[in-house]
Amino acid sequence: MEKKIKIAVDAxxxxxxxxxxxxxAIEAVKEMNAHVILVGQQQxxxxxxxxxxxxxxxxxxxxxxxxxxxxEVPTVAIRKKKDSSMVVGLNxxxxxxxxxxxSAGSTGALLTGALFSVxxxxxxxxxxxxxxxxxxxxxTFLMDSGANVDCKAKYLEQFAKMGSVYIENMYDVKNPKVAxxxxxxxxxxxxxxxxxxxxxxxxxxLNFVGNIxxxxxxxxxxxxxxxxxxxxxxxxKLAEGLSMALLGVIKEEITVGHYKLAAAALKKPFxxxxxxxxxxxxxxxxxxxxxxxxxxxxxxxKAKAVKNAIKxxxxxxxxxxxxxxxDKL
Amino acid sequence: MEKKIKIAVDAxxxxxxxxxxxxxAIEAVKEMNAHVILVGQQQxxxxxxxxxxxxxxxxxxxxxxxxxxxxEVPTVAIRKKKDSSMVVGLNxxxxxxxxxxxSAGSTGALLTGALFSVxxxxxxxxxxxxxxxxxxxxxTFLMDSGANVDCKAKYLEQFAKMGSVYIENMYDVKNPKVAxxxxxxxxxxxxxxxxxxxxxxxxxxLNFVGNIxxxxxxxxxxxxxxxxxxxxxxxxKLAEGLSMALLGVIKEEITVGHYKLAAAALKKPFxxxxxxxxxxxxxxxxxxxxxxxxxxxxxxxKAKAVKNAIKxxxxxxxxxxxxxxxDKL
Lengths: 329, 329
What we know:
Two copies of one chain form a homodimer.
Chain A: E1 6-10, H1 19-31, E2 35-40, H2 42-49, E3 59-63, H3 74-80, H4 85-94, E4 100-103, H5 107-117, E5 128-135, E6 138-143, H6 153-171, E7 177-181, H7 192-202, E8 207-212, E9 224-226, H8 229-254, H9 260-265, H10 267-276, E10 285-288, E11 293-296, H11 303-318, H12 321-328
Parallel strand pairs in A: 1-2, 1-4, 2-3, 4-11, 6-9, 7-8, 7-9
Antiparallel strand pairs in A: 5-6, 5-10, 10-11
Helix pairs in contact in A: 1-11, 3-5, 4-5, 6-7, 6-12
C-alpha cells in the first residue's frame, strides 16, 4: 500500500481565513488523493466544516489556539506564540506527522518558523522562496523572491540549482532555461554580486542561458530566473502593483460615457486576460531547501489557491524533490 | 541682456538619428528661446536641415566625424573616439561653450564620458541618473535608475537631496515627498543598505516619508523614490517590459473575431492610456551631480522627446539647479 501523503494547512492565516482555507481543503480532499490536516481554532474550523459534506477519513483538525498576524515581528511571534496555527503546523512537519505545510499567513513569520523548526537539506546554505510570476506565455519561476535580502554569489548558484530541479520535476520542463537577473545582457554587466554569480553559474551543469534583463522577464524568455531576495521581491511586488495600476487606468478610461458599451462587450476577453495573469492558478510560493515543503500562499488566497497549493505539496512529495535537490547540490 | 542659453545635442545618437534629432532641434528653436548646437556628421545634419525653414541664428553645427554605437564598451569608446559626436558634445559643455548636453546614444558611454569631462559639483560623491517613471497620476522621479550599481548608504542620501532639489525646481512641487525603495513599509525592513540609508534619510531636512514598497510606486505615492542603480534599473526596465507585455496580451485577446469591432471603438481611450504612460512627454533622464546638465534621452526618442529634453535643459539652466544642489549637500 502506498504511503498516505498528509498536508498540514494553516486554517487561520490570510485575509479570508478560515472560510476560504477550509473551503479549499474540502475541494482538495474531494478532487485528489489528499489527506489534509487543518490547524487552528477548533470551533471556528468546525463551524466552517459544517457547510460541507466530505469524506471525514481524509480530513482532520489539529487544534491551535493562537493566531500570528502580519503586523507582528516574525522572530518574536514565532518564539512567543507556541500554540499558534503556524507554529503547531510547522511542528507537525518537523515531527513527520505531516509531509508539507501550507500557510497564507505572515510571510516573515512563516519563513522564520520554517527555518527554526524544519531542518535544511544537507549542503543548502540558504533556503529560498520561489514564486511563479505570470508572464506572456505562462509563468517564470523567480527566486529568491524575498527570503534572503543580502546574498553571496554562492547562494544564487544554489538557488539556480534548486529552481531547476523544482521546475523540471513539478512542471515536466526538460532542462529548464536558467537565467541570472541583470541590468545588461553581456557577461561583464551588473554589480559585484551578479558578476561573481555569473562566473559560478557558467561552471554548473545547468542549462544556464546567461543574463536576463528585467524588461524581458514578462515575455517568458527563461524558465527560472535568479537574483537576491531584495531584487526578487522588488520584481514580484512591482509586477503586481503595475498590473493593477495599468488595469485600473484602462478601466477608468474605457468605462465612461459612450465607451461603456464597447467595454462591456469586451468583458469576456478581459476576464481571460485576468486569468492569464492570475497567481491563484499556480498555487503558492514554495520555500525550497528544507527537509519538507513549506508553501506560502498569497495573503489574499481564496479556496482555489488553497486547493492548488495542497496539490502542489502532493506533487512535490510524490516526486521526492527533497532528495533530488540534495543530489544536485 | 539675458545670457543666451546654449544646448548641445548629439545629432548621431539613438535609433532615429539624425532625422528625428534634427527635427526635434528645429521644433525646439521654433517654440522656445533656445540656441541649439547640433553635434555630428556635418553633411548628414545639413541634409536633414534642408527639409525645414528656421531661424539660423538659433541653430549651429559643430562637426564630429565619429559615432559611438550602443554595443561598444563605454570606457574604450570614450577614450578612443575623440571625434565622436558624444565626446565633442561633452567637451563643449566642459569648455563652457554649451550649458547642457542631450544624447539619445549609449547610456554607458554618455555617463562615462560625462564623468570624465564634465566635473562634479563639490561634495557630490556619485552623480546619479534620474528617470521620470510614468505612474497613475503623472510620474515618479526614480533615482538612481542605473548609474551606480553598487552603492553606499551615503550615496542614497545624496541622491535623495539631489532629486528633491530637481523636482522642486523643475516641476514646482513644494517640499517633494521622498521615499526609500524597500521591500517592507516598516523602518526595520530591508537589506543592509536600506537599513543604513533609512537612518541617514531620517536625519535630513527632506520631506522623507519613509519606505515605499515597489507595488506602490505605480500609484504615485511619492514624488522622489531612491534606491541603488541596480534596483532602480530593474524597476525601470521591468516597468517598460511589463507594460509592453500586458498591452500586447490585451491586443491579442481583443482584436480577434467578433471583439474586433468593440476594440476598434476603444481606439481613442487606448491612445489616451498610451499617452499617460508615454515617457516622451517628460523629456529625458537627467544625470545629476555634475557642473552642467547632461540628459540621456531614450534610444527610441523621436522629435517630441528631443524637443522636450532641450526644454528640460533650458529650465534646468534657468533655475540654476547646479548651485541649488551644491547648497543642499
